Amino acid sequence: MRLKKFSVTNYKVFGRTFSVDFATDSIIILTGRNNTGKSTFLEAINRFFMKETKAATIPSDCFFNRDQVITLEAHFETSDETLIFVKKYKDENAPKYEDNSGAEINTKHTLKAILDDLHANAPYYITPSMSTDDINKQIQTIYDQIIKGNLKGLEENPDEGESESTEHIQMKEEYATLKESLPKFLRKLKSSTDASLDDVSADVSEHLRSLFSNEDLSLRVLGGESSGFSASDILKSTSSSIFIDNDLRSEMPLSNQGTGLQRMSLIYVIQNMIQKKLIGDTADKMLLIDEPEAFLHPEAVRALSRSLYEIGNKMPLIISTHSPILIDLAENQTSIQVLRVGENDRAVQLYKSTTEKFDDDDIKNMRILNYVDSYVNEFFFADKILIVEGDTEYIAIKHFLKKYNKNMHVIRARGKSTICTLMKILNQFDTDYDVLHDVDNHDKYTASTLKAQLTNCKNILKLKVHDNIRVISSMANFELAIGLGDVSNDKKTETIHEIVNDSSTIPSFINARKEIKRLFDYIIQPNQETCLGKGFLEIKSEEDYNLLFSEKIDKKTAEEQIEKATKEVASSKV
What we know:
Elements: E1 2-9, E2 18-21, E3 27-31, H1 38-49, E4 70-77, E5 82-89, E6 96-98, H2 112-120, E7 124-126, H3 132-155, H4 166-212, H5 231-235, E8 243-244, E9 252-253, H6 259-275, E10 287-290, H7 298-312, E11 317-321, E12 334-341, E13 347-352, H8 360-372, E14 384-388, H9 391-403, E15 408-412, H10 416-428, E16 433-438, H11 447-462, E17 469-474, H12 478-481, H13 489-500, H14 507-524, E18 536-539, H15 542-573
Parallel strand pairs: 3-11, 3-12, 7-10, 10-11, 14-15, 14-16, 16-17
Antiparallel strand pairs: 1-2, 1-4, 4-5, 5-6, 8-9, 12-13, 17-18
Helix pairs in contact: 3-6, 6-7, 8-10, 9-13, 10-11, 11-15
């Protein structure tokens, strides 16, 4: 039985109902700025699975509104139906579970047995604030579940056609003998003990009758009953520990290691046990990790990312993160949920990936981007997003963002095909953004090259899916648009750095700086009456591109035809 949907209401930052649907995805990534409710949502899921029977189990400051009830609603999907459980906290009373109709799930309710199974199958919950004891308890929980699974295997007969090893058969026989012999021994022990207790009872009763002058007064000391032998009896006598060896010392307790190593060890233990199929039915188990990147160096975060996706392929996984490195948009199974604080400090969903809209080239582009720019996914944390085509405009815009303290994420695409991929990604999240690209209608290009560039430009415009997306073109490229003319590739970075850092008094550089600032103002303040320079054009329709290319294509075509005819005439004379 798998969690399909979870909703939280009136819990901490969640004043209004906030829901996440887990129906089709194994991995859910919650990301965004601080105080948006990412950690709180994971905490709420974990709290739903907690078995609480006493009052005052939840602090009063967990209520967003003290006059309302905290509601945690979970939808679980079975093979043929969806079951809904609602956990409610009122004031500081003990919480109650209800079904979808509002009826309390008590001992006689038909869902009580299923609810008990849910409590027994609570998620693994890993947080940055976990103490060493918490990590050890989590490891012990995993160890206990493996023992339960092994004992269950000893009690079940193999499937038809499935063979058992000699060692497994021997263990089954020993376990069966133990289950039979231990109760017999306990009954003998109880019989002997009860005889001693009867003597104690008789002596005490005699003293009581004499003391209180009551011949009918008596006392009996009764020994406890033992009904047999169970897996819980074995679990009580077993424990697990993790030790770390290095070149200086062996068998050091995990508790003596750094926090990052402790958390990574726990995650790797879970991953490895999943791969070896030691943790039962992982489809019904869930892993919740709050800020898995905490306390880790960058390379460890990248390694962690790979492990998390492997875990997510085997069991439901929900993480909250501030690290763009952990978000791999090339992973098709990933559902990315982005939380932001909206009006009245209520957490609302800002982004959600819903469908697969990427072809093989898009997947390749995203993987390349992840290799060359692991922070490309910072757009999840920005107020405004800009896609640029090359390094020169990237450096220029980033400089002015820092200078004027503006929060905008600039994504360097390094080509028009990748611009299209990035637009598909942002469109999937219904995002507002701007695109700045070169028209590349340079006079030096052939007619066929100009036609190809026109097609590339139109492909970008086709992905402008709503009016809050703006496409701005540099004519013919960024350097020409700001009045520098053609700049060789090996000089571009040095030249643009000199321009934006006010270190040159060359008139052309001063003018270029003004053009960049005008472009920057146009991008950063879309509602202001700011005009673009003559080297830039906001593209509204394909006709805008046609006007930039048609005359040049016709001219080049004519020149090439004349050149071809001239060569043919010269060749015929020879």
